[in-house]
Each structure stands twice: as structure tokens, then as C-alpha cells.
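Record type: ASSEMBLY
Status: queued
Input:
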Amino acid sequence: MSKNVDLNQEGVQVKKSACYFCHQNCGVLAYVKDNKVLAIEGDPEFPTNQGGLCSRGNSALQHLDHPDRVNYPLKRIGQRGEGKWQRIPWQQAIDEIAARLSDIKGQFGAEAVATAGGTQRTDDWARRRFMNLFGSPNGFHNAHLCWIPTFMIETAIYGWCPFDLDLGNSRCLVLWGQNPGASGMPEMHHIVDLQQKGLKVIVIDPRYTETASKADLWLPLRPGSDLALALAWLHVIIYSGLFDQEYVDTYCEGFEALTDHVADFSPEWAAPLTWLTADQIRDSAVMYATNKPGNIQWGTSVDQIGRPAGATMHARALLRALTGNLDVFGGDLLTGPSKEFITDEEMEANDSLPEEQKTKQIGSDRFKMVTWPGYGRIAELSKAFWGKAPTAEWMCEAHPPSVFRAILTEKPYPVKALLVSATNPISSYGETSLVMEALQKVDFMITSDYWMTPTAMLSDYVIPAAGALERPTITSSYGCADFLLASQRAIQPMYERHNDYNFWRDLGVALGQQEHWPWETVEDAYFHKIEGLGSGAENYDQFVENVRFHFPEREYSKFKERGFATPSGKVELYSSVLEGLGYPPLPEYVGPTENEIDHPDLAKKYPLVLTTGGGFMPFHHSEHFQIKSLRYLRHEPYMDINPATAASLSIKDGDWVWIETARGRIRQKANLTNGIDPRVVFTQRGWWYPERDMKSPGLGGCTESNANVLTTTADKDCDPYSGAWANRGLLCRVYKADPLGDKEVS
Amino acid sequence: MTRYAMVMDTRRCIGCQSCTVACKIHNELPIDIIYNPVTTIGPTGTFPDLTLSFLPLICMHCDNPPCVDVCPTTASVQRDDGIVHVVDSKCVGCLSCIMACPYGARQHNHETGTVSKCDFCKDRLEQGKLPHCVATCHQKARIFGDLHDPDSDVSKLVKNNRTVQLLGELNTNPNVFYIY
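Status: finished
Output:
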């Protein structure tokens, strides 16, 4: 409740809304009068946040009508990046964009139109529906860096991704590269509650994070060396006899092959690769394997280590099965998709995309797990077992760096249009120089966003997006959960902002897809999804007001009756699905993307190990830098460096320093902290400076402190399974920046 | 008689500063005024043998508030329920209270010319709601209630845990208790 606002005045309604500043979607109560939000606060009855809101959540009203928001459709009238715009009516924007897309499709084929998304901050089944009906397979997000490769590899091995942890009944939680203390607040308080009841927590993280400081065991491994650790855990669990004999004998295939495969991956082998001691590796494996039931919580880090990512997910996935922690009471549950409500996949119209177009998906020739070849195989197995498939948007996407390269090289074919929605690729996609070049070259680009981002500045049209409080929300783990949490919009979108759903729908209608978009509003579409729940609600808002949540009863050990959704019906420790797609059926060791053992010359020039991409409060990805009441907490970018390393480089706390990799260099300020290994540095992600001149060439200082200038997307550095590129486990050097300018201090 | 108190369970605090921001936004404080900063202590030690803790600060709403004693205009007052606050209309901005407060809990508000401080969101309490910093805390590290009510969470926490009052030796007798 804001100061001096009487919430008891006549006409104030309380709307059950949701925060939209990350995908936790915490419950928010919005006090509304005359389509104006007077105040917000955390909803105490919402099961995840229970009344809590983080810094961002509290800033909803600052976000809602911020003077820098984009409120009307804008058409570029100057040069790209010049910042000269003409305000045009919504329908004119839609019609002009549709006409141009139609031309491009006629001349180059539908596949010449691609879309870029960010994280799950939109109704992207609608984007997929549009793209499928339009005929292009080239939609993509930062999916590759966030869970999706993990989902697909785990599903290949045991038929679904066990992302639903039965944590309340667990005795041990492994947080593998996850820091809920800075990026998952609703989760963190449950963990601390359960710790007080005896839950053991193991944190695997190169940094001494907020979460690591609360852990029972902290494993500060070398960034990117997770695979060696996972293989050594497999070795310990098998060769110390800590596996669940009955589970393995009855429900798994390929144990003998796995036993032979990990024979040499001892803790002593992994110690120099991970920078942990053999005892640390052994003790942590024993803690996980003997405190049953236990969980391994997914974290983004492994998705972001590049070349070894897929093999790491593969090895990590096997741990759950060996220990018998898969789909059991207190373990990691295989829920499958919802049988009771219509899933995102069922809203995507995937059958509308011709087979011929599927084969054209960029990247599907090399990175098969999250493109049509792998997705198609998994969807087939999934439909046979669960009756439904995972969401295709996210799980089946073009390879983003390859699309950017296609824009530049016209190989394998020209990509002429890029529809950007809810992302700022300059900040958020790997290897900024590649992205910048592609965005400047692409013939036609439109951006739908809240803000005039650096990417929006380079666009031909900018479309105003409705955001938190202006949109209803269904939270259902990328459409793959069997549960859902439903929230309503507090107010209709302000100005000429539209929900992303309506943008795709309107564009679709303008392109002749009218009959495929029967739902005029997001609420109509959401109600169609949940109508089958039999809640008695007559419309979506009624459902939110009276029901709001759907949590089916948990069924444990379903495999005893039904087996697993794999070709053999068992957990395939030796994976036939991966083998069939041309991948190793057992996880083979490969070193971190850049490392001192495989690349000694590179390590001489770049002697420090870089990790980046980790979340930190109060920002989310590249967002919220405009909001003063958040920015004052961290008004400049900081990189973490150990005081001993800093001293050897004559760097003092607060000095501006350059961080440089083989791709380029950026400037951040040095934060001297003991919480990081002397051989490692950590840079903050997402930074740009919206307060600066947004015009080209500076574009709000979007390359100055941007961690993605440092990251790599070359094919050789990408995970061969998924194409995930590398933010972590790279080599860099650090040196002091001249406080007055660009010059390097020698 | 009600005696409002807050318990800071530092075992739960993760230093996210949601409390700091919630207070600032919802109380519409100027950019340079913070009622409840969260101080980070550490990481202390040598990598990898480290400890890290967070210390949320706020006005201690002392039983014996030196800020009230020194106020020449009776603008600083202590209510019967223990809440210490400033009556803006009486404050002349002499800053005596800022000097007297050993906790740094008071700040000069350049927009109003008066002294600003936490008042445990007394207007919200009247409507049956918790202070913003408490309501917003995901970690439930801030617990608020009536110390004189034996059934309240705060009185139970104070009774059953080893708690500390900051600068207890000054005999200010704060109504903010720290569990560590």
C-alpha cells in the first residue's frame, strides 16, 4: 500500500494479479479503482511467495507508467539507430508489417522470417502458432541457455524431465549451479524452512553465493568442470556400492555398460579437473546417495557451459536413477504433461507446419536435441506414453547463433526478417559482435518491448508491449507442468500497449489466419485451456477469483505399473534415443569450453577463468536498469575478483577494469571478494545504460559492460547435443582501465 | 499494553534488500533516504573457508530513546505501544536527534526539511497490516508483533532463542531483537 492512499475508499477492487518480472510469477494483490492501480502488495495466499515480493516485485508501479516506456506503435523514419520515429495507429503497424512479411515469404520462402524471444515472459505458444501457420520453423529464444537442453536430454533417458521436486519429503537437496538466494526467492524460503527440519543442502557453485553460505556442503568447482564432477559422482556411487540395487535391476537398462564406462572416472581423476579434492567429491557423492530420498534441482549453469553441457546433463541425469531417487516419494517426480487442461503444445498448431519446412529449421543439421529431429522423436515417445508432447516452442527451436550467421552469410539460405519480442538480443544473446552485425544487416526487423532497448533502436517498427498488471498469467513451467497457477490482469493495457498474444493474433489475422484464432482476448484463450478442469467458472477471471490453482494429487512410483516413456519402457542408462540421434549413448568426457589443459596457449594469454550469466538482485537479465528505486542499489556493473589476484594486478576495490576474452573486452568495476577462487572472475550480466544517449553508435552503452561481448557461440564451442553456447568456463584476462578513458594501463 | 517489536532472524536473511526497496517505494522516500539498509558481512575468511552473514538494520524503537530525550520541540515522540516517530509539523530540522541516535536510524529529509525515520508503518498497523519490510520478506527473516502478548511470534522467538539487542550496553533497550 502506498503512502497516503486510502484503500478502503469506495470502488476499490482487489485483483489477484501476478508479478511478471521473472518467471516465478509471485502472487500480487493489486488495489484498483477506475482502471488505475493504486497500490500493490504480495499476496499472502499465493502458495509460492506467501506474501513476499522481491525488490523488483515491489517496483511494479514504477514500471507500469515509467516515463521511458514505449506506449504507442512507432515506425522508423530516419536511419537505423538514429532514433527518428513516427507514431502510427496499431492497425496501420500490423497491416504494414503483415504486408512486408508477405512479400518476404513470396520472394524467399516463409523460412526467411525468424523470431527472437527471451526468457519465458510472453505467451509463446501464440508466437509458435503464428509461425507454424505462417510456415516458418525459425523461431528461437534463449531456450538453449535455460533448462531446455536439460529437459530434452533427461526426457530422452527417462521419458520426462523430473523438474517437480517432492522437496517437502526430501532429506537431501543438490543445488547444481543454482542460487535461489538471488534468483529464486520463493524457493529459497522453503529451502531454509526445510533445512531447519533437517534437509541437507549441497551447493555446487564456483562462487560463495547467498545460497552457498547457507549450505551444509559447498563445492566450489572450476567453472565449466561440472562434467568431471558428475562422472566422478557416478563412479563413487557405483564403485562404493551406494546405488539402489533393486531400482537399478528392475527399472533400468544398461547398468553394466555404465559401470564399465565410468571405471576410470575416480575422484582422484576428477580432482585436478574440478579443483576440488578427491575427498570433497567423495563426501558429497556419499551425502547425496545416502540421504534418501533426495533431489537434484536444475540450475541454468550447466545449460550455459557450452561444449560439455549436453554430456554433463546426461551424466547428472543418471545420478537420480542410480540412487533410486526418480519418481519416488520425496524424489524428483516424473509428472508428465497435464491430462486435465489443454497444454501449450496443444495450442501451438504444430501440425500446421509442413514436414518440408521442419527440415529447413536452421541448426537442425548439427544440434538435434532441441530441433525437429530430436524433438520429433521425443514428441513421438511422449505422445505414445503420456498422450501429449512437450511444448514445441522452447523445446524445438532454430539455433540462434546460426540464424544470426544466416542473416550475414545467407547460408543455408537468406533470413530477411526478424520479429523480436520480449528480448534485447544485443544484451542477452551470445557473442555480441555477431548479434550486432546481424541486427544491423537484417532487411526487416520489428521489436515488441516495454522499453526502447538498443535492439528496438535498430528496428523498423517498435510495438508497445503490455506488461505486469496489464496481462493475465498462467504459470505452468513452460507449459510442461501438470499443475497451474492462474492470475488475472489488474487493469487493461495502458495507452496503445497490447499483450503479446494480441500482437501475434492480429498479425496472423492480417495474414489470413483468422479462422485459426478464435479467441479474441488472452482470457478467452486461457479459459479455453482450463475449461476442462470443471471448476464451474464461467470465464477466466471467475476461475482466478474462485479457484486460481490446480495441483493434482501426486502419484509416486508410477513406473512400477507403467514403466517409463522410453523405447524399452525402462530408464535407459545406455540411451537408445541419444544413440539413434547420433549422440553417445553414455556421457563421454570433454573438458570445459576453454581450459588450461586442452588450450595451453590460450591460457597463457588469458590466465583467468571467467564465469558469467549468474543472476543478481535487483535486476533480471537485461531488465530494470531504468528504475531508479532499484538501480540505486547497484548503479554500476561490478565483477568479482579475489583480493590476492587483484593485488597482483594492482587493482583496488572499486577500480574500473577491463575483462577480455578472445572475443572482445568490457569494462566493469572491481568488487574484491574472498568469495571467489583466486583463479576465477565473475562478471555481472545484462548491463546497458538506458540513461545514456540511445542513438547509434553508442546505443545506450550496450557493448561497454555487456558480458556477452565475452561469450562464444562458435560451433566448436557449442554443445553438440543442443547447440547451447558458452557463458561459463571461458578464459579471460583482467587489467585496470584508465579511469579517464579507453586506454589500457600497462 | 501492546509493545511493538521486531525480530530479525539473521539465520534466514539472504541480503536480497527487498525490505529496503519495499520501504523506500511504498513510503515514497527520497532517493537518498533509506530506513532499513541490509549490511553484508563477509565473505569473511580465506577462500574457500568462508562465512557470510547479513545484518538488516532499522530504527530500534528503543524503550529509552535518546532521540526523544534530546528533541527540543517534542516532535520526536514515543507512543504508549513503543513506536518512536516524528511529528512533522513540530520538527524544525535541528538534527539533534540524528546526533543522539546511536543506530544511525534517522536521516535529514531534504525535501521536507524535517527528520525522517521508520515508524513501523504505523498507518498500516491501524489497518491490520504488517510493516512493508515484514510483509515483503520472502525469507520471513523479519517477524513483527506484540512483545507483551505471550502468544505472539515475536515474544515466543525472543523467549526461546538467544537474541541480541544492538549496543545493549547503552541501556537504550531496543525493541528490535536479533537471532543469529
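Annotation: The mean pLDDT of chain B is 97.
Annotation: Chain B has one domain: 4-179.
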